[in-house]
C-alpha cells in the first residue's frame, strides 16, 4: 500500500507522455480504489485510450441527487497546459480528501470526471513544442476536434472523428450538469454560443443563449479566482477581455464547437478556458500554471450545485424519464429532460423562478421557487414533482429534439408542447378558406 501511495504521489512538474500518463492514472486508482474509478470512453485514431478518472464518494456509478461534473483537456494536441494541471488537480483532490473539509464535502456531493487528454495522437505528434501553432493541434486524420461536433446553427459537413464520437456518446450516457474544456493560446474564459444567427443576436456581434446570465457567472467564477485572468489583459495589446471573459461569438465565430454541443444536446453547461498565451510552454513553467489555476479549478467545480434539482415521479412514486423540466422564460430548442431516474438539474442564479414540469401529453405543473445560492452547501435546492394522473402503464410520448436546431424558436414562452407559430398561421388560413 505504501508503494502504491508513493507511486501515485510521484507527480513531477513535467510533460507526461502516453505511457507515463496511463501509469500515473492507474497508480492513483490503485492507491485510492474507493475514491476513484478509471475508465476509457474510447480510442483515438491511432488506438490510444481516452482515459477518464472519476473522483467521488460513489465513483463507479451515478447516484441520485449527486450531479456529474467534467473537465476535458488537450483537445488540441499542441495546447498542453491543461493536460498537466488536470493531473495535478487529481493529485490534489485525492491527497486532500479526508483531510481538507472543503474538498471532502465537495467529493462527497459531486462526481468529478477528469479527462487529461482528448487528443493523445496530436500531443504525441507535436515533436517540436511551439507557442503558436503546430500540426499537433489536429488529430491523426488532420481534423480540428473543436470544429467537429454537430452545430446548433448550420449543418456541419465535417466527418465525425473517433475522439468526437466517443465524447458525444459519453455525454449521452452520463447526466453531466457542468463542464469546462481547457485550451491554450490566450488567457480568457469563453462561453456559449460560439456560433449564432439573428435570433441569438449575431447581427450585434454577440450570440446570446437563454442562460446567458448563468454563463457569464460561470466564466467570471473562473476568471476572478485565477491569478491574473480577471485582469483581462489578454496576451498582447490588440486583445483585451473585460473581466477576463468573453462571449465565444464576440471573440470569433466557430462552427462545430464542443461547448455549444454540450449545452444544446447534452443539457450540460460548458465553458472554454484558455489558460496560457503560449500553447506549449517550457516544462519549467508548469508549476506556476498550476498555482495560478488551482483555486479557480476548485471554485468552478462548486458551481455544479447552483440552482435547483429533483425528481419527477408518477402516482406510484416511479421515476418518469424524458419529462421536460425548464424555468419559464428559458426555453431550450432541445427541451431539458429528466434522465432514466427521473432526475433533472437546472443551473440558475439565485432569484425567483417558475419551474415548468411537463410530461408530454399531460397537463404541466408549475412551481414558483425562491432559489438561494447553495454552492457553499454543496447541494442545489431540491424540488420534486409528482404527476398523480401518470402511471407506469401509460407511455408518454418523448419530446422531439431536432438534429440540427437552428434556434428560430427561442421566443416561445415554454418548452412544453405547444402549437408553433407555423401551425397557428396554418389554422388561420384554413379557417378563412372554410368561411
Features of the shown structure:
435 residues; alpha/beta; Aminopeptidase; eight-stranded mixed β-sheet; four-stranded mixed β-sheet; glycoprotein; zinc ion binding; Peptidase_M14; protease
Low-confidence stretches: 1-8, 412-430
Find the count of extended strands (DSSP E, 2+ residues): 15
User: Structural class from helices and strands?
Assistant: alpha/beta
Query: Oligomeric status of the shown chains?
Result: single chain
CATH topology-level name of the largest domain: Aminopeptidase
Short summary:
GO terms for molecular function: metallocarboxypeptidase activity; zinc ion binding. The chain is of the alpha/beta class.
Description:
Belongs to the peptidase M14 family. It comes from Sylvia borin (Garden warbler). The protein has eleven helices and 15 strands. By secondary structure, the protein is of the alpha/beta class. β12 (351-358) and β13 form a beta hairpin. α1 packs across α2 and α7 (212-225) runs antiparallel to α10 (286-302). The longest helix is centred in the last third of the chain and has 17 residues, at 286-302. The protein is globular, with a radius of gyration of 22 Å. Residues 1-8 and 412-430 have low confidence and may be disordered.
Outline the fold blueprint:
Layout: H1 2-9, H2 18-31, E1 36-43, E2 49-55, E3 68-73, H3 81-96, H4 101-108, E4 111-115, H5 120-125, H6 162-173, E5 176-183, E6 186-191, H7 212-225, E7 245-247, H8 248-251, H9 258-265, E8 269-276, H10 286-302, E9 308-314, E10 324-327, E11 343-346, E12 351-358, E13 365-371, E14 381-382, E15 385-387, H11 421-434
Parallel strand pairs: 3-4, 3-5, 5-8, 6-7, 9-14, 9-15
Antiparallel strand pairs: 1-2, 2-4, 6-8, 9-11, 10-12, 12-13
Amino acid at each position: 500500500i505504501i508503494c502504491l501511495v508513493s507511486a501515485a504521489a510521484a507527480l513531477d512538474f513535467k510533460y507526461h507522455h502516453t505511457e507515463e500518463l496511463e501509469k500515473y492514472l492507474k497508480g492513483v486508482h490503485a492507491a485510492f480504489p474507493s475514491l476513484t474509478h478509471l475508465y476509457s470512453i474510447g480510442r483515438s485514431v491511432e488506438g490510444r485510450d481516452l482515459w477518464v478518472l472519476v473522483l467521488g464518494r460513489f465513483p463507479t456509478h451515478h447516484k441520485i441527487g449527486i450531479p456529474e461534473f467534467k473537465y476535458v483537456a488537450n483537445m488540441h494536441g499542441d495546447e498542453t497546459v491543461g493536460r498537466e494541471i488536470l493531473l495535478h488537480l487529481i493529485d490534489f483532490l485525492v491527497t486532500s480528501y479526508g483531510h481538507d473539509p472543503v474538498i471532502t464535502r465537495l467529493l462527497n456531493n459531486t462526481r468529478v470526471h477528469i479527462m487529461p487528454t482528448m487528443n493523445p495522437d496530436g500531443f504525441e505528434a507535436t515533436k517540436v513544442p511551439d507557442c503558436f501553432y503546430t500540426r499537433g493541434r489536429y488529430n491523426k486524420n488532420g481534423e480540428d476536434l473543436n470544429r467537429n461536433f454537430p452545430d446548433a446553427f448550420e449543418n456541419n459537413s465535417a466527418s465525425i472523428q473517433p475522439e468526437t464520437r466517443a465524447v458525444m456518446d459519453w455525454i449521452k450516457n452520463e447526466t453531466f450538469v457542468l463542464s469546462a474544456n481547457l485550451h491554450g493560446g490566450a488567457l480568457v474564459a469563453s462561453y456559449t454560443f460560439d456560433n449564432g444567427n439573428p435570433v441569438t443576436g449575431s447581427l450585434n456581434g454577440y450570440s446570446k443563449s437563454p442562460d446567458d446570465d448563468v454563463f457569464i457567472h460561470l466564466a467570471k467564477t473562473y476568471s476572478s479566482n485565477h491569478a491574473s485572468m480577471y485582469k483581462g489583459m489578454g496576451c498582447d495589446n490588440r486583445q483585451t477581455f473585460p473581466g477576463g471573459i468573453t462571449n465565444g461569438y464576440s471573440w470569433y465565430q466557430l462552427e462545430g464547437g464542443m461547448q455549444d454541443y454540450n449545452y444544446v444536446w447534452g443539457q450540460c453547461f460548458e465553458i472554454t478556458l484558455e489558460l496560457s498565451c503560449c500553447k506549449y510552454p517550457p516544462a519549467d513553467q508548469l508549476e506556476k500554471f498550476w498555482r495560478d489555476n488551482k483555486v479557480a479549478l476548485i471554485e468552478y467545480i462548486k458551481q455544479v450545485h447552483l440552482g435547483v434539482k429533483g425528481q419527477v415521479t408518477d402516482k406510484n412514486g416511479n421515476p418518469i424519464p424524458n419529462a421536460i423540466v425548464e424555468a419559464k422564460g428559458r426555453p431550450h430548442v432541445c427541451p431539458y429532460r429528466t434522465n432514466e431516474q427521473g432526475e433533472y438539474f437546472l443551473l440558475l442564479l439565485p432569484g425567483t423562478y417558475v419551474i415548468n414540469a411537463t410530461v408530454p401529453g399531460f397537463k404541466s405543473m408549475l412551481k414558483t421557487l425562491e432559489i438561494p445560492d447553495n454552492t457553499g452547501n454543496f447541494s442545489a435546492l431540491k424540488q420534486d414533482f409528482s404527476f398523480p394522473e401518470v402511471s407506469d402503464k401509460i407511455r408518454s410520448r418523448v419530446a422531439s429534439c431536432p438534429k440540427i436546431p437552428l434556434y428560430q424558436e427561442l421566443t416561445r414562452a415554454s418548452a412544453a408542447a405547444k402549437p408553433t407559430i407555423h401551425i397557428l398561421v396554418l389554422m388561420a388560413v384554413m379557417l378563412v378558406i372554410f368561411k
